[in-house]
Design a protein that fits this description.
Blueprint lengths: L2 H27 L6 H9 L11 H16 L3 H20 L3 H11 L1 H12 L3 H22 L7 H12 L2 H6 L3 H6 L1 H15 L2
Helix pairs in contact: 2-3, 2-4, 3-5, 6-11, 7-8, 7-11
Length: 200
């Protein structure tokens, strides 16, 4: 075998070894990382969505897995998930019972509110007013997007009007579970702005 052939054989063997190592690392760390497609896949495969009979314990375990991977998404990944799979997201959340919805809100939306509230407390007054103003603008856009749609009931549209007119965070605290779920995109954007201010 020529030197040239041996060099190529060695290179191919090294590449195979590297790719094997990469595959092993990906397998071992799969439970530690998340991406929009992974969360979308979990929601699609929720066993109760296909009509299967699932115990409450199994439902709770599966929901915890969905929440865990959703929490690992950053703001841009969550936005990508909504843009690509909003219908699936709505269907999955609508399939949850009241206790499961509360768990979802407590784990994914309450932390957003806590971060926003803590950030606003340490901001200068003018900066806080500016960010609240931006939030009202986002709420107006969300209200306009659903004016002709059917995702919000009439009472929810009234709630949106009150949010824009009054202190948004105080009203969000008192909102229903469904209203908090609908407002998640606005809260995620607001959290990013607050965190961006803190690190400037």
């Amino acid at each position: 075998m020529s030197i040239h052939s041996r060099t190529w054989m060695t290179a191919l063997a090294l590449l195979a070894l590297i790719w094997s190592a990469v595959a092993w690392i990906m397998h071992e760390t799969d439970d530690l990382v998340s991406w929009p497609g992974k969360v979308q896949g979990l929601m699609e495969k929720a066993p109760w969505l296909s009509g299967s009979s699932v115990s409450q314990e199994r439902r709770s375990q599966y929901l915890a897995m969905v929440i865990r991977d959703y929490q690992r998404l950053d703001a841009s990944q969550r936005k990508s998930l909504r843009e690509d799979a909003q219908e699936l997201l709505d269907r999955f959340l609508a399939s949850l019972n009241e206790g499961e919805r509360k768990e979802y809100v407590d784990q994914t939306i309450e932390p957003l509110l806590q971060t926003i509230e803590k950030g606003l407390k340490v901001m200068p007054t003018e900066e806080r007013r500016r960010l609240i103003g931006r939030m009202r603008g986002d709420l107006k856009s969300l209200r306009n997007d659903v004016t002709e749609g059917d995702r919000f009931a009439e009472q929810d549209r009234k709630f949106m009007e009150d949010l824009i007119a009054d202190d948004p965070l105080l009203l969000i605290r008192a909102a229903s579970l469904q209203q908090k779920i609908e407002l998640a995109p606005v809260l995620e954007d607001m959290q990013s702005r607050v965190q961006g201010f803190k690190f400037r």
